[in-house]
Structure to design on (432 residues):
């Protein structure tokens, strides 16, 4: 088994994070069945469920899309990053005081044409956390260098990974070629219709990185995430092809320092797969996938690029049994979750199984969490956190106030222009 150093580092960052967390239509919107939202919420067994309180991080965005959580200043709590595009054209860093109150700093300003989704990792191997981000319309990948004093009021040094990825959309960080350096993989939306990875040769600030194409001519690539799906010790890639439609994973096949990729289809039938993440949903030691299906939902529009039926809008997970065999077995978490945009997993209620947080974009736009009843193949209970929150998009799970309970943060663009978080208050008997 070859070296897995930087991927291991990235995984360790994620593990620490998870440890700290323990993840308009012509038709009227119809509510789906859910747990009680008035008074004390309940789960399917009639027991008291955990409660959340809502808190504003920032508002008055031009367009809020792209968030991450990491301890940038190494003070033991999780800070937040958030992108805000034209005309603001900024990347923010929110310094956490340890209790979930945030002070805004600016990593970058005056950088037009859609700074959006990003990931955090030590790109230059100097011991602190940098930010890798897409510049969507320009087709650029950038990384911003943490000087070691991230909140000193200075803009971070800006470095270009590539200017040759039209529609740059989502990023994943891992050591794909086993050389001990953190590489970058990315999707490219409808302007690029490709997946590619970019090789860090050890001089990440010395100019553009070498581009390696993974697959081209795939219509509307969105999700890009790294995980070892086949358990062979190297990082593979999860991707979605929204207009394929397809949920896929690319097997990393190293040979003499080079990397080739073999495509495997997880689901080639479900309409409009959007955004999801790897997670061990059934506790069997391998990575499954949690996913949002159905975005962009436009019933009655006859738009071939959109979902038309409520049944096509779901939060699901795919069970990894024989990862190279495909398709993977699809398990429905939440049915008729209109305009499902993104799903992420984590043990929100501390009962030892994996729950899911999700967003729906419109119809009407919301943030919710799905409670695992103990068997992920069985029934789940839906709990809404925020309804009528137009254009809700990315959602993350992180312990933002250091109480050992995983919280939820999400942003919303046109119609809302906000970044909020929901503090996990636990069950009534657990109040502190």
């Amino acid at each position: 088994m070859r070296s897995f150093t930087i991927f291991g580092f990235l995984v360790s960052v994620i593990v620490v994070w998870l440890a700290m967390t323990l993840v308009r239509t012509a038709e009227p919107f119809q509510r789906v069945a859910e747990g009680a939202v008035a008074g004390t919420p309940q789960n399917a067994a009639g027991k008291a469920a955990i409660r959340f309180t809502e808190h504003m991080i920032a508002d008055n965005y031009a367009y809020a899309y792209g968030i991450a959580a990491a301890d940038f200043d190494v003070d033991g709590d999780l800070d937040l990053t958030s992108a805000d595009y034209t005309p603001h054209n900024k990347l923010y860093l929110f310094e956490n005081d340890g209790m979930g109150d945030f002070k805004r700093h600016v990593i970058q300003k005056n950088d037009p044409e859609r700074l959006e989704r990003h990931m955090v990792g030590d790109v230059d191997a100097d011991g602190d956390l940098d930010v890798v981000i897409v510049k969507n319309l320009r087709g650029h990948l950038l990384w911003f260098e943490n000087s070691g004093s991230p909140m000193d009021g200075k803009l971070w040094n800006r470095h270009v990974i590539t200017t040759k990825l039209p529609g740059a959309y989502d990023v994943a960080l891992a050591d794909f070629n086993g050389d001990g350096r953190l590489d970058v993989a990315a999707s490219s939306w409808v302007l690029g219709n490709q997946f590619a990875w970019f090789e860090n040769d050890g001089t990440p600030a010395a100019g553009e990185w070498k581009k390696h194409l993974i697959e081209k001519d795939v219509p509307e690539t969105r999700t890009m995430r790294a995980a070892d799906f086949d358990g062979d010790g190297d990082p593979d890639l999860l991707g979605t092809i929204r207009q394929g439609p397809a949920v896929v994973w690319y097997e990393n096949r190293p040979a003499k320092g080079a990397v080739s990729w073999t495509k495997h289809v997880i689901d080639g039938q479900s309409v409009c797969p959007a955004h999801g993440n790897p997670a061990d949903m059934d506790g069997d030691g391998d990575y499954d996938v949690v996913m949002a299906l159905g975005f962009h939902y436009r019933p009655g529009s006859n738009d071939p690029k959109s979902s038309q039926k409520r049944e096509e809008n779901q939060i699901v997970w795919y069970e990894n049994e024989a990862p190279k065999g495909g398709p993977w077995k699809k398990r429905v978490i939440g049915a008729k979750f209109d305009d499902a945009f993104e799903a992420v997993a984590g043990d929100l209620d501390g009962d030892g199984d994996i729950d899911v947080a999700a967003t729906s974009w419109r119809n009407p736009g919301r943030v919710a969490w799905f409670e695992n009843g103990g068997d992920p193949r069985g029934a789940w209970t839906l709990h809404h956190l925020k309804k009528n929150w137009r254009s809700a998009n990315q959602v993350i799970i992180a312990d933002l106030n250091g109480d050992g309970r995983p919280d939820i943060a999400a942003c919303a663009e046109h119609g809302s222009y906000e970044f909020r978080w929901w503090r996990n208050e636990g069950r009534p008997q657990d109040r502190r």
